[in-house]
Design brief:
GO cellular component, one term: endomembrane system
Radius of gyration: 17 Å
Bound molecules: guanosine-5'-diphosphate, magnesium ion
Number of strands: 6
Number of helices: 7
Order of helices and strands: EHEEHEHHEHEHH
Keywords: GTP-binding, Lipoprotein, Membrane, Nucleotide-binding, Prenylation, Protein transport, Transport
GO molecular function: GTP binding; GTPase activity
Subcellular location: Endomembrane system
Low-confidence stretches: none
Distance between the termini: 37 Å
Structural class: alpha/beta
CATH architecture: 3-Layer(aba) Sandwich
Strand order of the largest sheet: 2-3-1-4-5-6
CATH class: Alpha Beta
Mean pLDDT: 83
Protein name: Ras-related protein Rab7
Helix content: 25-40%
CATH superfamily: P-loop containing nucleotide triphosphate hydrolases
Length: 216
């Protein structure tokens, strides 16, 4: 049997500005952390090749470029997401209280076919700060929120020292795969090095990803 095609997984990271979304992504993809605050980054997304249960995936992680403050993320940002990562700062109650808004916003904008079962993962970040002394959101409170939203997986992370970052992203990949389209809906053009041979339907994943990429 020929080896399986590589699959693209689109993951988006949402949460208040400053909670550490860009830092988590950089820690996971580049194993780097910076204390400097940078509201914008050059690229819309970072990619990482990941292996999961003997299959290779291209994980495409979409980050906001600071627009989260103005809540003006376009539909292209949300479209075709396989998993939505919600991030709050354990030292900020406001960032925790806003999780409902981010979740709702995602469900409205991405309008997944089965909203009740769409995979979310929650990260409580910055657990390293002040040795945990400035923490205001307890693990219990966060877990209760996750339970109330259909058992969302929860990780307490530090983008600074790397705590739980790898484990969290493993879980994110696993959950993104739950959303994998049926085999017959997949299209070879996504992974083909050659030019696309047969036209795809406008609902094909490759078209969705392409439209996302060029910002339509
Ligand atoms: P974003 O706006 O959600 O993308 O947040 P950033 O990734 O830009 O991080 C905001 C600030 O928090 C930056 O100064 C980071 O260095 C800092 N930061 C992010 N994650 C952590 C963390 O886990 N621990 C600590 N101590 N600082 C963090
Ligand atoms: Mg950022």
């Amino acid at each position: 049997m020929a080896s399986r095609r590589r699959t693209l997984l689109k993951v988006i990271i949402l949460g208040d500005s400053g909670v550490g979304k860009t830092s988590l992504m950089n820690q996971y993809v580049n194993k780097k952390f910076s204390n400097q605050y940078k509201a914008t980054i050059g690229a819309d997304f970072l990619t990482k090749e990941v292996q999961f249960e003997d299959r290779l995936f291209t994980l495409q992680i979409w980050d906001t470029a600071g627009q989260e403050r103005f809540q003006s993320l376009g539909v292209a940002f949300y479209r075709g997401a396989d998993c939505c990562v919600l991030v709050y700062d354990v030292n900020s109650m406001k960032s925790f209280d806003n999780l409902n808004n981010w979740r709702e916003e995602f469900l409205i904008q991405a309008s997944p076919s089965d909203p009740d079962n769409f995979p979310f993962v929650l990260l409580g970040n910055k657990v390293d700060v002040d040795g945990g002394n400035s923490r205001v959101v307890s693990e219990k409170k966060a877990k209760a929120w996750c339970a109330s939203k259909g058992n969302i997986p929860y990780f307490e992370t530090s983008a600074k020292d790397g705590t739980n970052v790898e484990d969290a992203f493993q879980c994110i990949v696993k959950n993104a795969l739950k959303n994998e389209p049926d085999e017959e809906l997949k299209c070879a053009c996504l992974d083909s090095e050659e030019e696309e041979k047969s036209p795809c339907s406008s609902n094909c994943r490759c078209q969705i990803i392409y439209r996302n990429y060029i910002g339509l």
